[in-house]
Each structure stands twice: as C-alpha cells, then as structure tokens.
Design goal:
Helix 2 crosses helix 3 (32-39). The protein has six helices and eleven strands. It has three domains: 3-66, 434 Repressor (Amino-terminal Domain) (Orthogonal Bundle), CATH 1.10.260.40; 74-112, no CATH class; 114-202, Immunoglobulin-like (Sandwich). It is α+β, with helices and mostly antiparallel strands. Helices cover 25% and strands 26% of the residues.
Length: 204
C-alpha cells in the first residue's frame, strides 16, 4: 500500500468536493489531525473507514486503495457506441457511450454483447399515426421475459422497461433513419435489430 499516493488522492478528491479536513473528519467521527496524517502520506485509513470515506469523496474503494483513478478517455458522444449493462442481482439497467467502470450491488458489470440472430425473438411493426406499434413474439413469465427495449438513432434514445406478465408490446415515436432497436431477454441476452428493423419498416 502506497500511503503517499493514497494521501495525495484523498487530498485531491477532498478539494474537488470543496471539503475541509475538518469536515471530512467530522463525517467519519475522527480527528482532523488523522485526515492530515493521511494526506501527508504518514498513514492510511483504518479498514473500518474505507467505505465511509469512499462515499464522502465519491470514489471507488479499490481506486482509493490503489491511490489513482485512471480516468477513461474523453467521451466524444458517439451514441451509436452505446453499451448496456444489467445487474444480475437487482436487475438495474445502466448504459455508457464509451468504456466505463460500471458497478452495481458490489459487482463489477461487463457490457452486454448484442446478437443479431433473432430466432424466437421476432418482432412485428405497425405504423399508427405518429407512432410505431411493436409486438414481440415472446413469453413474459417471471423467470423468462423481455426486460427492456431501446431504440438508438443519432443523438436520441428511446427506452421502454418491461416487467413479468406484462404484454410484450409497446408504442414508440416514428423516427426515420438507420437506427438500431435493442431488446433484452432475461434468459437469452441482448438482441440487436438493424437491417431486420429496416425490413420490418419497409414491409408495413
């Protein structure tokens, strides 16, 4: 454990949050001299304090222990590079548009890999005024159902969440162009409809 690196990071994050050593110490129920000692590299937080310190400073515990944040490359905003993550514990759905360290329920999440072979997950599309009505041929039981649908085109993202025993159908605004439709099945994973999506629109 490099106490000097850890101390510099703690100081950097504390100042970034606009906090004084005293304010950090008060939230942890320790003396401000202890915080000063950490930042001078003359010691490290007790194991019982790491969780509270990470919350106060808004940083991952592992990064604090390593003494460096290793920031990702600047997100240049290419929405077509969207990545989807689903927590296996609570089912929380998260997204990023570039490489990111995503965690939920104490687990590090990996981005889902989308497949384009849609056997068993076919869709039908009907245009209704200014909306598309989309139906998915899929069961919706508690252990096997469509969890979400997302349409990604240029800057806009349209998102629909589903729950067990709900009808696997939804309406979404008409958005022309070459966007991609994504469906996430709790059993079979993430599906991507691109060329097939365009064919469905043309055949309406």
């Amino acid at each position: 454990m490099d106490c000097a690196k850890i101390g510099k990071l703690i100081e950097h994050l504390r100042k970034e949050k606009g906090l004084t050593q005293k304010e950090v110490a008060e939230q942890l129920n320790i003396s401000n001299k202890t915080v000063s000692k950490w930042e001078c590299g003359k010691g490290a937080p007790d194991v019982s304090l790491w969780e509270g310190l990470s919350v106060i400073l808004g940083a991952d515990i592992l990064k604090l222990l390593q003494g460096e944040l290793n920031p990702n490359r600047l997100d240049i905003g290419k929405i077509e590079n969207i990545r989807f993550y689903v927590c296996p514990s609570c089912g929380n759905i998260l997204t990023s548009t570039s490489k990111a360290g995503i965690s939920c329920c104490g687990r590090r999440l990996s981005p889902l890999s989308a497949v384009t072979e849609i056997t068993g997950h076919e869709i039908s599309v009907e245009e209704m005024d200014t909306d598309y009505f989309i139906t998915i041929k899929h069961d919706m039981s508690k252990k096997h159902y469509i969890s979400f649908a997302a349409y990604v085109y240029d800057d806009p993202i349209w998102f629909q969440r589903f729950y067990p025993e709900q009808s696997p159908a939804f309406r979404m605004p008409v958005m022309k162009g070459g966007g991609n439709l994504y469906l996430y099945c709790t059993k079979d994973g993430l599906f991507k409809y691109s060329g097939l999506w365009k064919i469905a629109i043309k055949n309406m």
